[in-house]
């Protein structure tokens, strides 16, 4: 039996002296949807208040994807934030989730006016912003019109959606934004979004266009999913309407 069965891939260090970086490590499922599992690492004395901090790191290259710090305020006082970590996918969305424990955490009880060292475990669900295509479009003059996300739909940033024009000349188009994907034959194509959130007719320039929407910095929007499709009047389409494929857009945090 040989001992030479592992080789060093990478070495990481803490940000500041005395942080106790690496006190606790937890393997995670994939948090940023790059196909590689990720991991969490605790600096037990890290963070601005030195009450512990946790970083989620890319399993592919060690990049910090996200971080959170322990804190002390009028209701909660962390002591060993991140002393225990666990990973999994507890909401079943194929994105990694993280549990962070602090067995010494104290909570203030206003009824008794006393602090109790109850301990505390926080569950964090991974919410990366992403989009992905689904379903099939229907061609017009120049084939199936494109519908592409130019970036991820992250909170507090612009989301740009490129809409192609199958006719190659200015035409009328219908934008459908729905809350669920559907698959209903219509004309010769397939309706892929119910358009129950938003639907609007608009003039699509011959070269296509980019729609830009500013997504507010509101955490309540994380995990919100939209289904988008565009129908275009195109004289050369079999029933005079071409269809883009569908695009699923999930709002969240724009992770590296
Ligand atoms: Ca990953
Ligand atoms: Ca999950």
Name the descriptors.
mainly beta; 2 domains; Immunoglobulin-like; binds calcium ion; six-stranded antiparallel sheet
Number of helices: 0
What is the arithmetic mean of pLDDT? 95
Biggest pleated-sheet summary: 6 strands, antiparallel
The whole-angstrom Rg is 24 Å
CATH topology of the largest domain: Immunoglobulin-like
Shape descriptor reads elongated
List cofactors, ions and other ligands.
Answer: calcium ion
**CATH level 1 name of the largest domain:** Mainly Beta
Number of domains: 2
Our measurement of the CA-to-CA distance between the termini, rounded to an integer number of angstroms, reads: 40 Å
**H/E element string?**
EEEEEEEEEEEEEEEEEEEEE
**What portion of residues is helical?**
under 10%
Q: In percent, how much strand structure appears in the residues?
A: over 45%
Which structural category fits the helices and strands? mainly beta
Description of the molecule:
- The protein has 256 residues and is an all-beta fold.
- The chain has two domains: 21-125, no CATH class; 130-250, Immunoglobulin-like, CATH 2.60.40.
- Helix content is 0%, strand content 45%.
- It contains no helices and 21 strands.
- The strands form six sheets. Strands 11, 14, 17, 19, 20 and 21 form a six-stranded antiparallel sheet that branches. The chain has a four-stranded antiparallel sheet with strand order 1-2-3-4, with no helix packed on it.
- Strand 8 and strand 9 (114-116) form a beta hairpin.
- The radius of gyration is 24 Å and the shape is elongated.
- The two termini are 40 Å apart.
- One calcium ion binds next to loops.
